[in-house]
Amino acid sequence: MPGTSPSTRPHSAAPVRTDSSTAAVGTGVAVVLGAVVPLLVLGHTPDPGAADTLWRWAFAFAVVVGARLGWLVVAGPRRLFEVVFWIFVYVFLALAPLVQLRSGQHPGTTPRPHVELHGTALLAVVAGTAAVAVGVAVGRRRRAPAVLGDVPPRRAALLAVAALLLFGYYTWKTGLPAMFAARDARSAAALQAWPDPAVNAVVRSLATFPLVVAFVALVRVPARRGLLLLVAVAVVVSMNPISSPRYVAGTAALSVAVALGAMATTARARAFGLGFVAALLLLYPVADAARRVVAEVDTRGGLPPALDAMTSGDFDAFEQITNAVWYVQDLGSTGGRQLLGTVLFWVPRALWPGKPTDTGILLADAREYRFDNLSAPLWAELLVNGGFLLLVAGMLVLGYVIARVDAGADLGFRSGRRPVLAVILPFYFVILLRGSLLQAMAGLVVLLACGLFVERPCRAGSPGRHLR
């Protein structure tokens, strides 16, 4: 078949052998992320004194997470889901809270913080993260899945044509100028065409994410280069960083980069992981400039720019977990009602008037905030739905799933077959971790459906056959 991949035998996804040079580099990066960076934060933020020592625990957490992330990026196999998880924790739940607790400055989008609950919130962060680590350890004891993915050219072409038609319909309804307007303007045009939020989310996802799946699939089909070029142009238009949310544009850009070989070698994989960390720390906070018609509320100032950014609304994750702790303590958990709304995301509100809102909005309304476009990290989602018990249980399951998915994906990468969903979903995983889950579900379901359609499972070691 064209582009036949080398066969592989089923084997466990044990970590790759670590030689002395890898160990040295891994140790060096672990020291930089786990010691140098947290110490730089301490050196450039004011010491709150003996009256508030919670930052010491946040510092210890940042050291552990940074060391784990540094070693994993350098010395581990291509465990992309696990790497992305630790990157998210390091940036949003370790460094950002450390800056906020040290400086006493908190995101202006979450005013009147319950500082007395910060300790409980930090405990929730640590407990959830530790539960994921345990789940990963358990999951990695199992043998790697022996199933690889084969992309039939006909399916890839059908998906590409369908994705282009859906994108064309969306552009026709919103108008082509809206695709390059500010994010607020594009959202307003889409809401005018599809006023129901559930319908709007599904249509928007259908007009964007199938294009990314089609691109990644077509990269593995050499005979369809003309169609690949058309899809690439549509991806740039539909998911450009001007009118698209940063997480969506980032998912598209990173998926394309990996599909084109950004992680094809060990050296590239290391550089890619470290670049991802740097991008979230340095580029993400400024990537929203001049993209909105109305600026978000914020009250930053007094710190070096890189640290000052970590007190902005982009880094509200810790305060939203704090709000989730307050919500459960004062109002009780929702008993899974928020998760039910997530599962039934596709039901229009016209048919379900009492359908739950995003958990970020739920917390904002409960705190009587004027601004409600807030995150709801997975830690907060699980707390609101079932308290600490559901948090720990849910994170254990998540860790196990991460290990199993990474094991199968790593087998595919090492065999030369880049699994379609394994190229895209790790970056969409950031959206799921940040929350709210309800607003992320439409995109996730569309990605899964398209990936399962375009990629046919075949046993490792068996010759893949393309449908003609």
TrEMBL record:
Region (Disordered): 1-20
Entry protein name: O-antigen polymerase
Protein species of origin: Kineococcus radiotolerans (strain ATCC BAA-149 / DSM 14245 / SRS30216)
TM regions (residue ranges): 21-42, 54-73, 80-99, 119-136, 156-172, 201-219, 226-242, 248-264, 271-287, 382-403, 415-431
Keywords for the protein's UniProt record, in alphabetical order: Membrane, Transmembrane, Transmembrane helix
Coiled coil: none
Chain intervals with Polar residues compositional bias: 1-10
